[in-house]
Amino acid sequence: MELCRSLGLLTGSLALVTILIALSTDFWFVAMGPTFSSHSGLWPEKSNSEVPGYIRATQSLSILAALSALVSVIFLILSYVPSLSIRGYGPLSSSIMAFAAAIFAVVAMAVYTSERWNQPRHPQIQTFFSWSFYLGWVSAVLCLCTGSLSLHAHCSGPQSGYETL
Predict the structure, then answer these.
(1) Are 30 and 37 in contact (CB under 8 A)?
(2) CA 64/CA 105 separation, integer angstroms
């Protein structure tokens, strides 16, 4: 149980860091032409222009994923302090929040991927996804790992019953 809980805390912390880095950087999409290169992220610099709906959806779902991952990590940290958590239920709560974070992250990344993939191409401009985009996908995988490890820690830990009273 201790190993799974510790690994869950590690992967949860990494998931939180990667989703926060992905959210805060603007290297989601790169365009390179013969005489220029440009990159964009989830937070457009032009405040007077209309932001597409898929960007808003990706922003919102990514923020929800980051918040869920944060709560998952907090539950795992609290599970190490017996006086602050209900015996055995810290990893279960963490698992639920980690799986919720994974769902939010996967949907956010799928929305962004499908919309960017279907945009029209220009013959002289090469476009591709960049490292911030890939960090978003990595955070979704790490959230799934956190949920799995936390759930395993909960299932292999002591169960509540008359023996614990």
Answers:
(1) yes
(2) 8
Give me the CATH number covering residue 146: 1.20.140.150
Structural domain containing residue 105: 2-29+52-117+129-157
Q: Can you read off the two tokens belonging to residue 112?
A: 């962004």
Cα-based torsion angle of the residue sequence 86, 7, 100, 96 in order, rounded to the nearest 10 degrees: -30
Q: Which two tokens stand for residue 89?
A: 């239920």
Instruction: Tell me the residue ranges of DSSP E strands in the chain.
Output: 29-32, 37-40, 126-129
Q: What is the pTM of this model?
A: 0.85
Residue 156 neighbours by CB distance under 10 Å: 14
Which three-class secondary structure state does DSSP give residue 8? helix
Low-confidence ranges of the chain (pLDDT < 70): 1, 47-48, 83-88, 157-165
